[in-house]
Specification:
By secondary structure, the protein is α+β, with helices and mostly antiparallel strands. The protein has helices at 15-27, 40-49, 72-79; strands at 7-10, 32-35, 58-60, 66-68. The longest helix is centred in the first third of the chain and has 13 residues, at 15-27. The protein is globular.
């Protein structure tokens, strides 16, 4: 992972993941999408980050901030910093 890269872990069937993607796209923010169904290592990483839970979307920012299932307002506020 690049030090300047936002990573979003999710699944194609997750409506919250689609919503978060729309926020990123509306703001013109680049991110790396990792589908848990396609990457077993990613699923294990999400569980590690969420203390055993497989919650999506899990979004990891370059500064180490992690948002899990953020509301639009929370994600937009984080992107504004």
């Amino acid at each position: 992972m690049s030090e300047k890269e936002i990573i979003m872990y999710g699944t194609t069937w997750c409506p919250d993941c689609h919503r978060a993607k729309r926020v990123f796209e509306a703001k013109g923010v680049a991110y790396k999408w990792i589908d848990l169904a396609e990457d077993q290592n990613a699923a294990a990483e999400v569980e590690r980050l969420n203390k055993g839970c497989r919650s999506v979307p899990t979004i990891v920012f370059p500064d180490g901030t992690i948002l899990v299932e953020p509301a639009n307002a929370e994600l937009e506020a984080r992107l504004a910093t």
